[in-house]
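Example record

The entry below shows one chain as it appears in the dataset: sequence first, then structure tokens.
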Amino acid sequence: MSVWLSPASPDSRLSTQEGELLAVSVRVDPRRLEALLEALALVPFPINPQIRHGSDTTVEFPAYRERIAEVERVLEACGFAAQSLRCTAMIEEIHAARPQ
């Protein structure tokens, strides 16, 4: 028996009145990680970031689609390009992480 959902269909989105739940990631130079975390602290909803280190550092967190514009505004105000933000449907991220 598998606990994994069947492949995502258009009707199987994780959503509320704030829109679909997204997996948000921001790539940043490791030297700017602290500045990015300080910027994310200014977003008007709580963010619990997951940090992945490599050649670049990636900060990941969930957010609802209706809140992404707020994240973009804060990042731009703090000197980060809004284009550094990448959003994917959370259900797709869950299925991508599924063991084969």
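Notes for this example: Helices lie at 33-40, 68-77, 90-96. The chain has one domain: 18-96.
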